[in-house]
Amino acid sequence: MAALEKLDAADAAGDGTTERAARHLVQPWPTAGQIGAEARTYIAYGDGIYITGAGGERLIDGPAGMWCVNVGHRRAELADAMRDQAMELSYNTPWYTMNEPSVALSERLAAHAPGDLNHVFYTTGGSSAVETALRFMQFYNNVRGRQEKKTILSRQGAYHGSTYLSGSLNGRPRDRDWMDGADGMVVKLSSPNPFRRPAGMSVEAFSDFLVEEFRETVARIGAERIGAFVAEPIQASGGVIVPPDDYLPRIAQICRDNDILYISDEVVTAFGRVGEVFASLDVFGVEPDMITFAKGVTSGYFPLGGVMMSDRLFETLRRSNHPDAMFAHGLTYSSHPVGCAVALKNLDLLEGGILDHARSVGPYFQQRLRTLEELPLVGEVRGLGLMACIECVADRDSMNPLKLDNEVGRRIDRHCQELGLLVRPLINMCVMSPPLVISREQVDDMVAILREGISRTMDDLR
Ligand code: PLP
């Protein structure tokens, strides 16, 4: 079996950037044994769906950064919007002043949001958006005199962020193995992963099982103690888990019946990733109480996130017995004028043709990627729109998972990088979420590289 270190060596070579980084830069998600010394691919330029390394090697940006560069790299319109707004008003305090771009963006987002989600609170990214939604749920229940109604329901396989409370919701084992969390506040339910449903169970029966588990959990804990259910419509970092069709609407109904706030975490799925500005209602048939968003709202050009909140929540608070209670929560960069100006221009681009393009190329992307299921290492290719996951297995008959130390995802990524594609490895899975502007020909290029990268990985494992 080829040593992974050998495949990694390509990263360490070059112009000394790795050594410079090792001296001062702490990279996200480091492992203890390599902390401060990770070799990571150095990216110098971006253009459209491509990124270029320091040595001039051009790669397709398979994960679009981290599911975020939706309109593609090097969009002059976004750079101009950023510069123009910075020259006009680079910052104002959101405590007692306000700016036009944040008002205009709120109007545009409210027009796209489902139902009565007409209000926006801006944050600096996805973790702070989830944190804000959860703190708002706590405030909402405090003001209503329901101090006990705070338990949060999350799911195995979830990823909701890297702040303390948002991180406590994470359900991927590696996110929690070495980290503390607010465990007493969170209850984890099963991941709605049809690929890993119990043997012999139909997808319909699996959905019934998940709904029953939810009902039983509410009955066991007591609805009067449960504040919110938080769910990504598609569990993204958990491996692009597309749930059974009727599962989310059925859970939403139970939440509504039990006065449990439904928080739809659309940090990944919003802004065109599955073809719509917001996917909760249009794609998944759910009208949540809050939606969290980030990433694609500025296509990653500026750190911005936010929470859409419903009229219903606002009306309840306005009619409460504590009209003076304060939601003591805000960030220095809430409603940032430059971020909101970039988001407005980004929405122009999405509405001006990129959303239509994403809707049309998405099914082609899914269909072409699924041809990789012919390869013996590939257990399943799944996804929706322009997000997909290739899950590798030890054995196609049993679909048994591979041993973790095979690090198949990293191997495929390393081979694909040599061939011109950056892949996001997730243990024994590879995630694909390219910029939405990808053409059909570029999808073909991507799939051809993946086919070769997976074949080379199969050779490694022999
Ligand atoms: N929620 C989801 C569904 C995510 O995928 C992520 C990040 O990947 C987050 C929240 C956290 O967002 P951020 O990294 O911007 O804080």
Residue fraction in strands = 15-25%
Bound molecules: pyridoxal-5'-phosphate
Principal-axes shape call: globular
Instruction: Give the helix level as a range of percent.
Output: 25-40%
Number of alpha- plus pi-helical segments: 14
Quaternary status: single chain
Order of helices and strands: HHEEEHHHEHEHHEHEHEEEHHEEEHEEEH
Distance between the termini: 7 Å
Number of strands: 16
* Strand adjacency order, main sheet: 4-10-9-8-7-5-6
If you compute it from the alpha carbons, what radius of gyration comes out, rounded to the nearest whole angstrom?
Answer: 22 Å
Overall average pLDDT: 94
Main sheet properties:
7 strands, mixed
Structural class: alpha/beta
Low-confidence stretches: 9-13
InterPro entries: Aminotrans_3 (IPR005814), Aminotrans_3_PPA_site (IPR049704), PyrdxlP-dep_Trfase (IPR015424), PyrdxlP-dep_Trfase_major (IPR015421), PyrdxlP-dep_Trfase_small (IPR015422)
Cofactor: pyridoxal 5'-phosphate
GO molecular function: pyridoxal phosphate binding; transaminase activity
Pfam families: Aminotran_3 (PF00202)
